[in-house]
Specification:
The chain is of the alpha+beta class. The protein is 27% helix and 26% strand. Strands 4, 5, 6, 7 and 8 form a 5-stranded mixed sheet that branches. A hairpin with an 8-residue loop joins strand 4 and strand 5. Helix 4 runs antiparallel to helix 6. About 4% of the residues have low confidence.
Length: 321
């Protein structure tokens, strides 16, 4: 009897050890298959400081390709709920040069002027997050930052281009974001989707997003007036919105083409955006992009490949009753 007990205990011990070995082996499979663990540093919306999100990635052997893989994946945004980039459209105003003058220890990040629209605390978090993320790669030591090819200006109003883990702010905190209220005019539709009706709304304009972005965001959320009907599906996602020389480039997800509110509302869907944006003094025309590409064919006979101007003929007027 005693021998059977010893045997059972021994067998149990063997099974436990085998299970532990199996678990360790399974957890090590990604590394054996060429996967690399990279910590990506995003802003915690609750903490207001940088938080880490661990990613397992298959990196190319080339240093340049490996860096670009991490860079692009980072700018695609976090996978963790309540984590975010410094700005929603950061991917569209940030570019990478590597190596710099043949030096594989240095990368150059160049922002457009959109970077300057960020609050000071978001700028600090933007720089720190990118430095800590990119220097997860052991060959990279320094990251140079520019705005339109001019060195960025630090908190002391001094031009400073070179940043690394030794001189970047360890973990700056996000100050409460300043916002201004602005009265905007949004165009929604009637139940028959045959004309647009204006709704005035006071909204908070956040520094991290353009007014144009927030106008389209409000259109997607729908009207406050219960007598009005949304023109856009709630599934439509904003990829990017920017205005250059009077033309507002509105980059939307394919849901704009495939998901509609009601039938036959293609005209009101398009011009609810165009007419709402051209209420702004700096917007004269609107160019639609779908996933970054111009689309010529669109239901309702509209050519979205061309810039569209304000269309007052689809706006409801009382004298037409």
């Amino acid at each position: 009897m005693k021998g059977k007990t010893i045997f059972a205990v021994g067998l149990l011990a063997v099974l436990i050890v085998s299970a532990i070995v199996y678990i360790i082996a399974v957890n090590r499979v990604p590394e054996k298959e060429g996967m690399t663990a990279i910590n990506m540093y995003y802003i915690g919306d609750i903490s207001g400081t940088l938080e880490t999100e661990k990613r397992r990635m298959r990196l190319p052997e080339s240093n340049e390709e490996a860096l670009r893989t991490v860079f692009n994946d980072y700018l695609n945004g976090p996978q963790t709920t309540n984590y975010s980039l410094a700005a929603a459209d950061m991917k569209n105003f940030t570019s990478l040069t590597y190596p710099v003058d043949g030096n594989e220890n240095i990368a150059k990040i160049n922002f457009t002027q959109s970077y300057n629209a960020l609050s000071q605390s978001r700028k600090m978090l933007c720089i720190a997050g990118m430095v800590y993320t990119l220097t997860e790669l052991d060959f990279l030591r320094n990251v140079y930052f520019y705005v339109d090819n001019e060195p960025i200006v630090n908190m002391n109003n001094e031009a400073s281009e070179r940043y690394n883990r030794n001189n970047v702010a360890v973990n700056p905190s996000l100050e409460p974001e300043k916002s201004d209220r602005q009265l905007v005019v949004l165009y929604f539709t009637n139940a028959a989707h045959n004309y647009l009706i204006a709704e005035e709304r006071s909204i908070e304009i956040k520094q991290s997003q353009t007014t144009e972005y927030q106008i389209v965001e409000q259109l997607i959320q729908g009207p406050l007036d219960s007598s009005l009907v949304p023109t856009l599906s709630g599934d439509v996602k904003i990829k990017d919105i920017k205005t250059e020389e009077g033309i507002c480039y509105v980059n939307l997800s394919t849901d704009f083409l495939t998901k509609h509110v009601g039938s036959g509302n293609e005209l009101t869907a398009v011009y609810s955006i165009v007419n709402s944006l051209t209420e702004l003094d700096n917007v004269k025309k609107v160019q639609f992009l779908i996933e970054g590409e111009k689309i010529s064919d669109y239901k309702g006979g509209l050519d979205l490949g061309k810039t569209l101007e304000r269309n007052t003929s689809v706006i409801y007027r009382e004298d037409e009753e």
